[in-house]
Design a protein that fits this description.
The complex is a heterodimer of chains A (about 180) and B (about 150).
Chain A: H1 8-15, H2 20-35, H3 57-60, E1 61-70, E2 73-84, H4 89-102, E3 107-119, H5 121-136, E4 141-144, H6 149-157, E5 166-167, H7 170-174
Parallel strand pairs in A: 2-3, 3-4, 4-5
Antiparallel strand pairs in A: 1-2
Helix pairs in contact in A: 4-5
Chain B: E1 5-10, H1 15-29, H2 34-55, E2 63-72, E3 78-86, H3 98-110, E4 113-117, E5 126-131, H4 139-142
Antiparallel strand pairs in B: 1-2, 2-3, 3-5, 4-5
Helix pairs in contact in B: 1-2, 2-3
The chains are: A alpha/beta (about 180), B alpha+beta (about 150).
Amino acid sequence: MAEPPSCWPNILSLALPLSLADMATYRVLFEVRYGAGVHESDVGDPNSVFDAQGPPAEQVVRIDTARVVHDRAKALVVTVAGEIDLLTVKRLCFAVSAGFDQLGDDEILIVDLTGVTFLGSPGLQALVDVTNAARRRREPLRIVVDQNRPVIRPIQITGLDSVLALFDTVEHAMQPTS
Amino acid sequence: MRRPLQLALPADPVTPSVVRQRLREWLAAWSWPADQLDDIVLAVSEAVSNSVEHAYLHQPSGMVEVRGGIETTPHRQHRVMIIVRDHGCWRAPPSDHENRRRGIPLMRAYMDSVTIGQPPDDPIGTWVVLRSKAIPLSHDALGDSDGNMTCADD
């Protein structure tokens, strides 16, 4: 097969079993696709072609930052809930970066991941990056993960449990370490 | 829902989340056990993320295709086979890119086998063939025998 100069031949190959009318549909879909957002086609069944707008990043992950005081220790806690992936990882980085900027002299920064339901390699890399950034700033950054499988398992598999400062609760993360 | 999974989506940062949602629905229709379901979803998401991030860096953006089916092993167990395919240029993993170095080990840890290569009918594209660990599926989960599909091996 000749080298396709763009993704047009891919669309054609998907549409091969289809009639010319179907191919016209694909052409319209193709144009729509690149006009805005994400649209999905079930290539096996042209009759079921439909738009499936991808969710905006703020629906995939929710990030809240709050000050917490516990046993006279003070912390700024960035609480993350939802999925950390290619789409949302920048929001996590921005939130942690903003947390550093707002950090008081006697506060520590904590990232609470107990509400995270998905953590892929972009999110793992972000955790390494913010941990390294914290070290450069000589600020403590502590990450809260419980036995939530979608979070702890990729961290353990990639060996990052020995790189990241992990705690099982926000309260434990706020206790002074020797 | 018990049809082969077939998705074609633009290589866009939102695509991995759309694929995860569709894949979850598809595996749930097969009553796939929750832990294994999470593993498959993560592995496929990594493969899709790789395509989104790297396939079309040096050319007009194109599509990422995801196809899935259920295979029956000789021991009457079942596994999911997923093919994630793009039509961009395959590039060797760049040494300064940690994401990619973690993504592939994650896929291998979560699946029984992961094969990354070039599809036989496309001299420039890349596909990742992922096979999950084989599990016994209940008769109820399998339902009618014609629902038990084998993914086309092309």
